Amino acid sequence: MPSLNKGSMIILSSPSGAGKTTLVKKISKNKNFSVSISHTTRLPRPNEKNGKDYYFISKNYFKRLIKKGEFLEHAKVFDNYYGSSKGLVTEKIKKGKNIVFDIDWQGTRQIRNKNLIYRLLTIFILPPSKKELYTRLIKREKKNMKTVKKRMKGFTKDLSRWTEYDYVIINDDLNNCYKKIMKVIRNKKKISFDREFIQKHVKKLLN
Ligand code: ADP
Ligand code: 5GP
User: Fold this and answer.
1) Residue having the nearest C-alpha atom to atom 23 of ligand 2
2) CA-based, 20 to 30 A from 51: which of 14, 34, 35, 198?
3) Does residue 71 line the site of ligand 2, with CB under 6 A?
4) Would you call 6 helix, strand, or coil by DSSP?
5) Do residues 25 and 35 make contact, with C-beta atoms less than 8 angstroms apart?
6) For all residues of the chain together, what is the average pLDDT?
7) What is the distance between the alpha carbons of residues 197 and 65, in angstroms, rounded to a whole number?
């Protein structure tokens, strides 16, 4: 695996509401970092902007883009389609940018299986507790309980994917978590994490 500082792919995944979108935005503020803005068929949240948070498109258009081979990866998540644009990612990475992805485990698998020439780093974010995750989802979804319930329903399955990632980090205090992520990204060599501690934390989250 090439150990480059520039031109890497960094993927953040997590159960919904753990904070990966917030973290991805924070990471992308660093020089030479850029977010992969995904396409989605989901409706925008009140504060989301087309072309900034996502490219919000119709199901038909999404299907046409799949047929044209425009996606580096794509997946159906919570009844909506999401995909990362091959063209947008390639353009930025060729300029030496580190691309940060906020994508799920299905997309992560697809990218991993491509064995691209770029350094790939996969990070799984965990919430400090299930209660805190619930609180964060309610806050974000402006008390739209139907969506909150749907996201919470996917929690256990989403959580089980942590074993597929290079690093697992708990997002309790946002700045602490961010610092840990940047340390992992900046390290050219793989640094290990306390797998046993994470395993215990996951067990607690499942209770
Ligand atoms: P995800 O992308 O994983 O679904 P978000 O980044 O949208 O999660 O975060 C969900 C909600 O939690 C947002 O309202 C966000 O502002 C908030 N949040 C994220 N990280 C923290 C944190 N460390 N402490 C408290 N609230 C947080
Ligand atoms: P949300 O609707 O909360 O923005 O995202 C829902 C889920 O879809 C999250 O797990 C998020 O990481 C994932 N997601 C967002 N964009 C993409 C994408 O382009 N590809 C894949 N596979 N998942 C994505």
Assistant:
1) 103
2) 14
3) no
4) coil
5) yes
6) 94
7) 42
Q: What mean pLDDT is predicted for residues 187-194?
A: 80
Record the tokens describing residue 66, joined without a space. Answer: 């799949």
CATH number of 4-206: 3.40.50.300
Span 178-203, mean pLDDT? 91
Atom of ligand 2 nearest to the CA of 20: 12
The predicted-structure confidence for 19-67, as pLDDT tens digits, reads as follows 999 999 999 999 999 999 999 999 999 999 999 999 999 999 999 999 9
90 within 8 A of 34, measured Cβ to Cβ: no
The token pair that represents 8 in the structure block: 């890497």
Q: Specify the pLDDT at position 1.
A: 39
pLDDT average, residue stretch 86-96: 94
Neighbouring C-alpha atoms within 13 Å toward the C-beta of 107: 27
Is residue 82 within 6 Å of ligand 2 at its C-beta? yes
The reported pTM is: 0.96
| CB distance 187 to 121 below 8 Å | no
Task: Please give the distance, rounded to the nearest whole angstrom, from the Cα atom of residue 140 to the centre of ligand 2.
Answer: 15
Which residue type, as a one-letter code, is found at position 102?
Answer: D
Whose tokens are 């619930």? That residue is 134
Site of tokens 């159906």: 76
